[in-house]
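Input record (one chain):
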Amino acid sequence: MFHLKRNIPAWERAIRLCLGVIAALGAFYYLPPGVLRALGVATAGMLGATAVVGFCPACAMLGRRAVGPLK
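The corresponding structure, as predicted from the sequence alone:
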């Protein structure tokens, strides 16, 4: 089974989720229907998905380590 190690701390996950909600509302209310709105909704979806899952592929490619308990 595909397993992702979390690489986003809890505080950053909360911020990403809030920004995702704000981006989605902004896209629906302030952007005209079409490609621009679709990009705004996609951005909001990615922020929300990475917040819920706790894994960011871009952060992993840049070398961010997995989040684990303090030792």
